[in-house]
Design brief:
CATH topology: Undecaprenyl pyrophosphate synthetase
CATH superfamily: Decaprenyl diphosphate synthase-like
Distance between the termini: 22 Å
Strand order of the largest sheet: 3-4-2-1-5-6
Strand content: 5-15%
Family: Belongs to the UPP synthase family.
Number of helices: 8
Largest sheet: 6 strands, parallel
GO molecular function: transferase activity
Cofactor: Mg(2+)
Order of helices and strands: HEHHEHEHEHHEEH
Bound molecules: 3-methylbut-3-enyl trihydrogen diphosphate, magnesium ion
Number of domains: 1
Shape: globular
EC number: 2.5.1.-
CATH architecture: 3-Layer(aba) Sandwich
Number of strands: 6
Radius of gyration: 19 Å
Helix content: 40-55%
Keywords: Magnesium, Metal-binding, Transferase
Length: about 260
């Protein structure tokens, strides 16, 4: 996918001939709590403002023609936070789906949820299902919501599913391929993330997309997630466009 000037006008012309827009950008939306604390506000206010940043990000991704964005909205480890914060985050997700679903559907966005559904409140699980079902045939931006998501748990679920196939005689252990594993993950059928953006200065994956990130480019910025805006997104994309992805091979210029 070449970046043409009208497709992505912010990329300087000199870079655009070799630059490629990422097909899939994944976001570790971090720093809501610190954003709020720095302003003397409760952490929950940071999460509320974080939702606004998410809405901006979705709109911008759709506008510039990114194919897939994945957002890390609640990790399987986030259950260890105080109960009041956890229930606020659950309520925020519920409100997000209830208020934004029709608009996302009208914008032709396809929603997909990754993560475990097993320990979710039935009300939330059915809302997530409704969002997926309603938007299943949409052909615009793919919005992948990582909710109650942990990559190790995802790999474990995939391993169990493959083991079941072996047990039932549908698959031989020696025939298992990397593609089979990719397909058995919650992200089966999606391209791997080209770019993973984490806000708020932490440089770790925090159990996000461990298998899928094998050849992702990483971009870390100091801004807290509620401050992430179109300009910050463009800066990350421009940085991505300037990188040479070698996949273990050699720089094109060295050949
Ligand atoms: C990210 O912000 C949102 C979630 C993890 C749900 P944090 O809540 O982690 O904010 P910090 O990292 O404590 O500032
Ligand atoms: C990662 O952020 C999870 C989400 C953004 C949803 P955390 O704030 O939970 O990660 P750690 O605890 O700093 O590793
Ligand atoms: Mg955090």
């Amino acid at each position: 996918m070449s970046v043409s000037p009208d497709r992505h006008p912010q990329v300087p012309a000199a870079e655009s001939s070799s630059a490629k827009l990422p097909r899939h950008v994944a976001f570790i939306m971090d720093g809501n709590g610190r954003w709020a604390t720095a302003r003397g506000l409760p952490r929950t206010e940071g999460h509320r403002q974080g939702l606004e940043a998410l809405r901006r990000t979705i709109r911008h991704a759709g506008k510039i023609g990114i194919e897939v964005i994945t957002i890390y909205s609640f990790s399987s480890e986030n259950w260890s936070r105080p109960e009041t914060e956890v229930s606020f985050l659950m309520g925020l997700l519920r409100r997000f789906v209830q208020r934004d679903l029709s608009e996302l559907h009208e914008a032709n966005t396809r929603i997909r949820i990754i993560g475990s559904r097993s320990d979710l409140e039935p009300g939330i699980a059915s809302l997530l299902q409704e969002a997926e079902d309603l938007t299943r045939n949409n052909t615009g931006l793919n919005l992948v919501v990582a909710f109650n998501y942990g990559a190790r748990a995802e790999i474990l679920r995939a391993t169990r599913a493959l083991a079941q196939k072996v047990l039932s005689g549908d698959l031989k252990p020696d025939d298992i391929t990397e593609a089979d594993i990719s397909e058995a993950l919650d992200t089966g059928g999606l391209p791997d993330p080209d770019l993973i953006i984490r806000t708020s200065g932490e440089m770790r994956l925090s159990n996000f997309l461990l298998w899928q990130a094998a050849y992702s480019e990483f971009y870390f910025c100091e801004q807290h997630w509620p401050d992430f805006d179109e300009a910050a997104f463009e800066k990350a994309l421009n940085n991505f466009c300037s990188r040479e992805r070698r996949y273990g091979g050699l720089d094109a210029k060295a050949l």
